[in-house]
Amino acid sequence: MIPSKSPRSLWLPRCWRTLVLVIAFFITSFFLLETFWPAQQRLGELEDTLEISNNGLSPGHNENPTVNLVMATLRKDDISWVDNITIPNLNVIRYISDSTDAEFHPPVPKKGREAMIYLTYLHDYYDNLPDISIFIHADETPWHMESALNSSVAFALSHLDLQQVLHQKYFNLRVSWQNACPDWINTTKTTGNKVKEEQRYMYDAFMENFATDQVPEILAGPCCSQFAVTKDAVRSRPRSQYRKNMDWLLETSLDDYISGRIWEHLWQWLFKGEAIDCPNEWESYCRMYHVCFDSESRVQVMSLEAEKKYLQDMGLFKQLLDLLGGFKTRARLAEIDTILATEVENALERGKSEAVRLELFPNLYDP
Question: Engineering a disulfide at 271: which of 123, 170, 217, 291 sits with its beta carbon 3.0 to 4.6 angstroms away?
Fold first, then answer.
């Protein structure tokens, strides 16, 4: 008869018990990791989404950036419209070009157009800059403010995403590529051009302003010297750079009109070190202003703007030939403006939703 084993005799030796425990530990750990790691991945994806919903910025971005609005004006200009701009705590600095008695004025009257005023501010405020400086002209509705922005600087600035300005460091307030992108100024062309009168002088002007013979062949970016820039971008250049540029405007023998036009093509190089600054138009409206057109509305807007330009070009001629025809032209122009305004309202409504913005433009916040 085989003797029965006691319960203790059924236990494994101590070394085997230890081995079993170790194996059990690793198996349990593996299953925990299988459960925990995807959750961590999902959390990481959520954090990425939240970062995107903060317009591509890290969670520690500046919620309330300080902003100076630098205006290039003449004494006669009425700038009361700036009261309609809804940027919190906006500090308006009005430079008056034709008055040496004004609190803010360039070193000489009416020289270098708005470029002299902007450069004077950049030099004088270099050590006391706000987070963002925005540079504009005196007119609320200049010809170069697009209908996609209600043709209004006040509208554009009130909808400008300041967090995106901080992220991008420099942004031209105009978006349109018309007479600007992708290759508007060719610095190798030295003969006259009636449309681009400044082009023949660009090569020498670039060398003189930036003390280099490495001149980009192409300079391109939306016109017309209205932009936002961060203090970091300004300080990427030494203060002496702005003094040098001011001196060039003071000393150049070029006509004031030409020297001012030359500087319209140099801001992106000054602040970004880039010769071409031509972001996609529709994406730029959506990213920077949250004015987001879908594919159907883009076609509508382009068609209406083309018709509007045609009617404006032909309007005076038609009025001279036929008073009734002139009346019809004005009526159609008013109708087009009404339709465009409605399209902008719809685009703003789309732009309120981050999800819709990313649905329209999946790569909206790519660098």
Answer: 170
Task: Give pLDDT tens digits for 266-291.
Answer: 999 999 999 999 999 999 999 999 99
Q: How many whole angstroms separate alpha carbon 353 and alpha carbon 350? A: 6
Q: What is the pTM of this model?
A: 0.81
Cα 180 to Cα 267: distance, rounded to the nearest angstrom: 13
Q: Which residue has the tokens 């002496």?
A: 240
Q: How far apart are the first and last CA of the chain?
A: 84
Per the CB < 8 A criterion, the answer to whether 298 and 282 are in contact is: yes
DSSP letters spanning 239-305: HHHHHHHHHHHHH--S-HHHHHHHHTTTHHHHHH--SB----HHHHHHHHH-----HHHHHHHHHHH
**Distance between CA atoms of 258 and 112, rounded to whole angstroms?**
8
DSSP structure class, residue 160: -
Tokens of 54: 């903060």
3-state secondary structure of 84: helix
CB 249 within 8 A of CB 258: no
Three-state secondary-structure class, residue 134: strand
